[in-house]
Design a protein that fits this description.
The protein has 146 residues and is mostly helical. The protein has a domain at 48-145. It has 8 helices and no strands. The chain has helices at 22-32, 36-44, 48-68, 72-99, 101-109, 120-126, 130-133, 136-145. The radius of gyration is 16 Å and the shape is globular. It starts with 21 loop residues before the first helix and ends with a helix. 29% of the residues are buried.
C-alpha cells in the first residue's frame, strides 16, 4: 500500500471511489492481456475525453510490445493492433473537428486529468500515431502554431 497521497501513481487512493477508474483499468487490462476485441469494445464505451486518449494509449502499448516481441507473427499482430488504435483515434478527433473545430482543437491542447495530465499530442507522438498526427484537426492546430 502506497501511503504517499501526492503520488499520482499510487495503487490505492482513499479519495477515489471504488470503480471510478474501472473503464480505464479494464481497458488497460484488456490491452496488456492482448484481448484486442475487448479493448476495442471498452474503448468505445468511455467518455469523450477518454475516447481520444484510450486508443492512443492502446497504440503506445501495442507498439512497445511489438518492439519487445521476438515472434514475427505476434510482432506483426501487435503493430496491426497499434495501427487500428491509431486510425480509431484519428477518426474520433476528425469527427469532433467536423462537428466543432474549437472543441476538437481544445481537446488537443488540454492535459487529460484522468490520465495523469497526459497531453494527447505528446502521447500520439510517443506512440508514433501517424494517422492521428496527420488528421485534419492536428494539422489545423499545427498550422496555427506556426
Amino acid at each position: 500500500h502506497n501511503t504517499n497521497k501526492n503520488n499520482k501513481l499510487s495503487l490505492l487512493d482513499d479519495n477515489i471511489s471504488l470503480g471510478k477508474r474501472a473503464p480505464q483499468d479494464l481497458f488497460l487490462w484488456a490491452v496488456f492481456l492482448n484481448r484486442f476485441e475487448l479493448a476495442t469494445y471498452l474503448c468505445s464505451k468511455t467518455w469523450v475525453c477518454f475516447k481520444l486518449l484510450t486508443p492512443l494509449f492502446g497504440a503506445q502499448i501495442y507498439r512497445r510490445a511489438a518492439t519487445l516481441e521476438l515472434d514475427l507473427d505476434i510482432k506483426q499482430q501487435y503493430e496491426d493492433h497499434a495501427d487500428q488504435f491509431d486510425t480509431h483515434a484519428m477518426s474520433i478527433i476528425d469527427r469532433c473537428f467536423d462537428h466543432d473545430e474549437h472543441f476538437a482543437v481544445d481537446l488537443l491542447k488540454r492535459p487529460a486529468v484522468a490520465f495523469n495530465d497526459v497531453y494527447p499530442l505528446k502521447l500520439a507522438r510517443k506512440a508514433t500515431c501517424k494517422s492521428f498526427l496527420a488528421s485534419k484537426c492536428v494539422q489545423k492546430y499545427l498550422d496555427h502554431q506556426w
